[in-house]
Design goal:
elongated; 159 residues
């Protein structure tokens, strides 16, 4: 179980790294005319708890990036636990797609709008949500692939 958590966490960090690159590209390409939604969520949370004025631009940048990697690492750990319990090694692509869509739906369709930190999908621009869905699918695909690779690496070689 601990090994699944660790492999999942490592996989989540790798997935979050690539997802972050997709988000940066989407920002540059104009999909996010304001800020990257993940940053907006953290800024809105800081505003709600009354610390936004106390955080400099650099501190806010570090805060949202740290939060993004923590979220991705924890989600990767959960994936690791669930995937190894289900024992569906041939279901890498469907499992990762379901995982990515579930993460997007839980965040952007669930807790963020319910907490008043970000508009729900129907209240947001479709191009922003499309970029978010794509980024979450990339995250999940990379996380699942990395987890599969780490599992393969621990198996004894048969010659």
């Amino acid at each position: 179980m601990v090994n699944d958590l660790v492999r999942g966490a490592i996989s989540g960090v790798v997935g979050t790294t690539l997802m972050s690159e997709i988000l940066a590209f989407a920002k540059t390409a104009g999909f996010f005319p304001d800020e990257i939604p993940h940053k907006q969520i953290v800024e809105n949370a800081a505003e709600k708890v009354g610390v936004a004025d106390e955080l400099s631009g650099g501190a806010m940048e570090a805060t949202w990036i740290t939060q993004h990697f923590i979220y991705g690492t924890v989600a990767g750990s959960v994936y690791g636990l669930v995937q190894n319990r289900l024992k569906l090694p041939g279901a890498l692509v469907p499992a990762s797609a379901v995982f990515g869509l579930a993460l997007w739906a839980i965040g952007f369709g669930g807790w963020a709008p319910l907490a008043g930190l970000y508009p729900g999908p129907t209240e947001d621009q479709p191009r922003k949500q499309g970029a978010e869905i794509f980024a979450h699918l990339v995250y999940a695909g990379v996380t699942a692939t990395m987890f599969w690779m780490l599992n393969k690496a621990r198996q004894p070689k048969v010659y």
